[in-house]
Specification:
Zincin-like; Serine Threonine Protein Phosphatase 5, Tetratricopeptide repeat; mainly alpha; single chain; 3-stranded mixed beta sheet; about 5% strand
């Protein structure tokens, strides 16, 4: 499996962009928390929260988790810390932990952030209906939340609602043209040609390994694929090997299909800024999935020319 080349996936990047929104929300925290009957974080604790968001912005999930640990120990179950815990879990690629962390976070300082993070988490778990509902709730609170429009566009693509996907994508770009740019436009034939050229340029030993392994291009991963992986694969994944790694097979195995490598066109076109980047990402994605087929670790990937 290969997710987009920035942290875990689009969700993580979105959570980092929303850090500023949470920082602004803290200005209203005391008044809101008094109404909701829970004790506000003190100034020092809010500074620690800000440091965690900074670490997420730098892509340092492990350090963010460590930094957040003392806060969670001192303030177990605090709604605003549950929000940050969920964002760290998303960065770690652990949506199951994120969804658990968000239970009880409804009373956090920024309800729009809560609904949006829960929508992102549900999206990661391929629960597209609940994700759509929560993203819509976030927009009802903050109509200018470009991230929610972008998420709704991706959800709409997965459920086959092309009109809604276009409308929400356009809204996101209008609100934040730098953060949400037009995806690359390539015909299916042009995209397939890039994949074919990439396969032809693979190292010889890799080409030999995939001679009998189909490399298939699909618009998006199917929900069945995502559910089968039980939350381990993001809907934004760029490529996926489906099958049993060669190193795990034995002579006693029942003969069957070798599996397949899937390349997901729309996710790649959305991720890449230009044709050169697209060609590079297709190559890296195919190589990465060949590595999964062979059951290689990171050092072995380099040895095979797949690093």
């Amino acid at each position: 499996m290969r997710a987009p080349g920035f942290a875990h996936a689009v969700e993580a990047a979105t959570a980092r962009r929303l850090a500023e929104r949470l920082a602004h929300a803290t200005l209203r925290v005391t008044e809101r928390e008094e109404r909701l009957h829970y004790e506000t974080l003190n100034e020092t604790e809010w500074e620690q929260v800000s440091q965690v968001w900074d670490l997420l912005e730098e892509g340092k999930a492990e350090e963010a988790r460590h930094s957040l640990g003392s806060l969670l120990t001192a303030r177990p179950g605090h709604p605003d810390l549950r929000i940050v815990d969920a964002a760290v879990a998303l960065e770690e690629g652990n949506p199951k932990r994120a969804i658990e962390s968000l239970k009880g976070a409804e009373r956090s300082a920024d309800p729009a952030l809560f609904f949006h993070l829960r929508a992102l988490t549900e999206y990661e778990l391929a629960r597209f209906g609940p994700a759509r509902e929560d993203a819509t709730r976030a927009l009802a609170i903050h109509p200018d939340l470009a991230e929610a429009h972008d998420l709704l566009a991706r959800i709409a693509e997965h459920v086959g609602d092309a009109e809604a996907a276009r409308a929400h994508a356009e809204a996101a770009r209008e609100m934040d043209p730098d953060g949400f740019q037009e995806p690359l436009e390539l015909s299916e034939e042009e995209f397939d040609l890039i994949v074919e050229q990439t396969l032809a340029e693979m190292p010889e030993k890799v080409r030999h390994e995939i001679e009998e392994l189909p490399v298939l291009v699909q618009p998006l991963p199917s929900r069945d694929m995502l559910v089968a992986e039980d939350g381990a694969v993001s809907p934004d994944v760029l490529g996926l090997f489906v099958g049993r790694p060669r190193m795990e097979r034995s002579v006693s195995d029942t003969p069957g299909a070798p599996g397949a490598i899937y390349i997901f066109r729309r996710n790649l076109l959305r991720t890449c800024a230009d044709l050169d980047e697209l060609k590079r990402e297709v190559r890296i994605t195919v190589q990465h999935e060949v590595g999964h087929l062979l059951g290689l670790d990171e050092d072995e990937l380099e040895e095979w020319g797949l690093g």
